[in-house]
Amino acid sequence: MLTARSFEILEAAIREFIEFGEPVSSNLLYKRHSFGIRPAMIRAELGELAERGYLEQPYHSAGRVPSNRGYEFFAERVIAAERVAARAEELTDLLRHSAWDDLLEHLSRQLGIVTVAGEDSGDTHKSGLETLMEHLPWGSRESMMNVIKDFEALDRRVAAARDVFEDKDFLEVFIGRKSPVTRSDELAVMAADYEVDGRRVCLFAIGPKRMNYEKAAAMLKGLKRGFKFK
């Protein structure tokens, strides 16, 4: 059975991997964190987390990396936190006045990912694709082609996905192929649904699975200020 300490170790391992992009070992966690146990016990905890599907062990590596299930766990904890981005009022004004270029460019620049807005009218606005393409870990030509196909189909999928969020929670996260707007296993999507002066707007933050979930969630939460949201 996984304990509170198990999940503390899992969260620390995922944070380390998101920041540095290298498999995380028990020795590294022992040096950088205080769990009150020795490396051997941390190693056993990592093994248990891997057996439960939260971590994976890359070939020829002693360390662990997050699985899709691990990323989901981490993102859901981030969403449940109360952190809200600074400068929220400025971002809210941009959303209220449909200043899409400025809003999405700001979000994409701050987060290093693609941001997309889908309106009631069916119009789709997006920014940051070039930045995302530079930061994705291209493991193969196939993975690159899957991402390209996703963005070729993005307008259509965003328009269709708006129904997914009706009467849903304010903020949701999708890892890999579970996303309604992308199909690549390389990507993660954080989605928020807003009601802005009688208009419904869906915002999508699309990035690599190593994206900064905390920062993305804080910014998307910040935009809810002043709005009635679903």
From TrEMBL:
GO molecular function: DNA binding
Domain named Heat-inducible transcription repressor HrcA C-terminal: residues: 94-215
InterPro entries in the cross-refs: GAF-like_dom_sf, HrcA, HrcA_C, WH-like_DNA-bd_sf, WH_DNA-bd_sf
SUPFAM superfamilies: GAF domain-like (SSF55781), Winged helix' DNA-binding domain (SSF46785)
GO terms of biological process kind: negative regulation of DNA-templated transcription
Residues forming coiled coils: none
Keywords tagged on the record: Repressor, Stress response, Transcription, Transcription regulation
Protein name, entry field: Heat-inducible transcription repressor HrcA C-terminal domain-containing protein
